[in-house]
Amino acid sequence: MAKITASVYTSHVPAIGAALDLGKSHEPYWQPVFAGYDNSRQWLRENRPDVIFLVYNDHATAFSLELIPTFAIGCAAEFKPADEGWGPRPVPTVVGHPELAAHIAQSVIQDDFDLTIVNKMDVDHGLTVPLSLMCGALDPARDRWPCAIIPFAVNVVQYPVPSGRRCFMLGQAIRRAVESFDQPLNVQIWGTGGMSHQLQGARAGLINREWDNAFLERLIADPEGLSKMPHVDYVREAGSEGIELVMWLIARGAMADVAGGPAPTVRHRFYHVPASNTAVGHLILENH
Amino acid sequence: MAKITASVYTSHVPAIGAALDLGKSHEPYWQPVFAGYDNSRQWLRENRPDVIFLVYNDHATAFSLELIPTFAIGCAAEFKPADEGWGPRPVPTVVGHPELAAHIAQSVIQDDFDLTIVNKMDVDHGLTVPLSLMCGALDPARDRWPCAIIPFAVNVVQYPVPSGRRCFMLGQAIRRAVESFDQPLNVQIWGTGGMSHQLQGARAGLINREWDNAFLERLIADPEGLSKMPHVDYVREAGSEGIELVMWLIARGAMADVAGGPAPTVRHRFYHVPASNTAVGHLILENH
Amino acid sequence: MPLHKPYLDIPGTTIFDAEQSRKGYWLNQFCMSLMKAENRERFKADERAYLAEWPMTDEQREAVLARDLNRCIAAGGNIYFLAKIGATDGKSFQYMAATMTGMTQDEYAAMMLAGGRSPQGNRVIGEDGDAQPHRQGRAPHTPSSST
Amino acid sequence: MPLHKPYLDIPGTTIFDAEQSRKGYWLNQFCMSLMKAENRERFKADERAYLAEWPMTDEQREAVLARDLNRCIAAGGNIYFLAKIGATDGKSFQYMAATMTGMTQDEYAAMMLAGGRSPQGNRVIGEDGDAQPHRQGRAPHTPSSST
Ligand SMILES: [Fe+3]
Ligand SMILES: [Fe+3]
């Protein structure tokens, strides 16, 4: 039986990927960002899963306005890093887990989540930057990501995006799906995006350190309550792109305590401002 | 305020479209099929809506295995008849209603249905054959369909398809969405596909006249109970492609009686075997 | 995969579920490519060469070459995709359906005109309907010779 | 559209909802086309000619030519799509963000280093934060001259 052993939460700022790819991670501006993930890289080496179920959003890369899935699960054998306008990031190809992905798709659709199944998709910084933060710089040709990865893309670009509550319930359905898979896989679920940031208009550059830290607090201790927060609160308090944080609730909903198990252990917590236009938040929660 | 005034249910057998397009509708084989829609064409002329919300499934035409949305709503200004391998059907282009479609999308996503929004899509026989049956032969260049049409594509090709219950609940959400639109539009909702048929394997050609008629009966009088029927019953009793009938529950769920209003009037009912490999069923229900 | 598959006991029926879809991915995508006229031409000009361009299994390629739709389905094919092979061949859907049942097209068409195949005896494997596996080998109808 | 839009009272913020998306469809699809190198070249070679190929409004075309992202957003643009114009121009995202705020890139970067823009006074239209409409005309920072 497969099992979700831990969840990881992190921002996925594209500039972080660029800094790493251009060898700037030791510059004074970036050093504190990457330092916040030193323990996490060590932790991932020691707690290497078989599969990462990686929740992220596409940023007008794989999905244009021609077709916008609310939830899209990647069932392919591999996913190429996307060319977002400057050529693809120099990182390894993402190797999927078609069997577990198809199993989860089948299970959560039967649980009344109306997924879109995707068998061909390039993945943008939303997916690759969290991997880079947690794995460090890798050579696209020589190296590989440490395990298989199932991309799960959430629409947070065009409104209405799914509600926090919907995301939290989906996480619970994903946990049930994983636990009904009959291979003994160690699965992590990652929620990415956020924290507070606004990339548009006169309010661009908005950061809400207080709100972000309260969000981290509630995500740990009161995810059910947090899941009821309406979209407009995210936007008003954490900026128009702060809405990406609803994706963290998918990962949080998949943790054991939500289904009556023991509370997770907080293995790591980190917060930093700024990375380019964005507040960086990061959390690792372990199941027992 | 927009209002759903009626629902129409019909099979969408591709051979029916071919018969019409090749001028065979008066041949002895096809005459009884088209005769079953004579009253319906008259009814539609007398009850012309502003918009038809047309629930159908794509048959490996617009969606390959690269991407399979469970529910996809067409929000474009127009949709071209697809080339399904013999050239596009000679029928008028489908004119959409982007404003109402976007409104419905926004509303039902906020109601926890995880739609895929589609702004570019060709539509196959699943959508155009019901229109042809209800409108008769039209000239692709000179004529137009009688009103705007919002295509709503449901995955019934790759399992798991959405449950009958999910479809029935979605219909209810669509009704709420339509009724919150602030233009006085007359909207019909059509459910298409079925009835019993199996297109594959040693059991190809299966027809279950008794089951089909019981389905029509329950769709009229006990849709809530009918919506609880599991997939496997459709497949076992009505053939592997009989599963298309779950789409009828979306249209039925949008009728007034489901939300506590008066029972609909049965304006027309028709059943015929065979059209090519399929049992043809048809029903018109009117709200008051 | 421990997901419940209550449809496995239905005779002569393969449900195109996630597992079949993964198995048949390239077979079905090959079929999808036949929606384009230029691909149909290239396929017709040299079927083996065209099939070789797709990462299909040998079994899938052989099943396509033999136009054996039941084998194609067993190998992960879905009928809506496979129908595009028939369209390329200029065959009707009813012709294709007939080939899967061991009937000639005329026999199949006559069955449909007479009300279609009865579900009687064909609901569960082990009954004695005409679609049961044990009756496929010794069907009263001889298989169509035109493939 | 009577759907509740509780976000309309947030200053300096345009939510990309269904209505904006319909309005900005071709503007955003034009931006998407810049993901291909050959399209970027054609656009750079003759911006007006390239824009004329898209069924955009004149206002959308002018806003793109002026690189006025706030006008682009008002005309239905979404920042993730619009960012592809900046990428084509070889500009950083922080540069683009700055142009929408009436700050120079240096001023904007300094604000971010100092902890970012405060939500204080910027939550609801009518408060007195630096992102309020009534403070956009007379911002302490002069708008960047490089567009
Ligand atoms: Fe993001
Ligand atoms: Fe169909």
UniProtKB/TrEMBL annotation, chains A, B:
It comes from the Bacteria. Residues 8-280 form the Extradiol ring-cleavage dioxygenase class III enzyme subunit B domain. CDD domains: PCA_45_Dioxygenase_B (cd07364). Coiled coil: none annotated. Keywords: Dioxygenase, Oxidoreductase. The keyword Repeat does not apply. InterPro entries: PCA_45_Dioxygenase_B, Xdiol_dOase_suB. GO terms for molecular function: dioxygenase activity. This is Class III extradiol dioxygenase subunit beta. The lineage of its organism: Bacteria, Pseudomonadati, Pseudomonadota, Betaproteobacteria, Burkholderiales. SUPFAM superfamilies: LigB-like (SSF53213).
TrEMBL record, chains C, D:
It is an enzyme of class 1 (oxidoreductase). Gene3D superfamilies: Dioxygenase LigAB, LigA subunit. Coiled coil: none annotated. Transmembrane segments: none annotated. InterPro entries: LigA_sf, PCA_LigA, Xdiol_dOase_LigA. Pfam families: LigA. GO terms for molecular function: protocatechuate 4,5-dioxygenase activity. Residues 119-147 are annotated as: Disordered. It comes from the Bacteria. Residues 27-112 form the Extradiol ring-cleavage dioxygenase LigAB LigA subunit domain. Keywords: Oxidoreductase. Its EC number is 1.13.11.8. This is Protocatechuate 4,5-dioxygenase subunit alpha. It comes from Ideonella lacteola. The lineage of its organism: Bacteria, Pseudomonadati, Pseudomonadota, Betaproteobacteria, Burkholderiales.
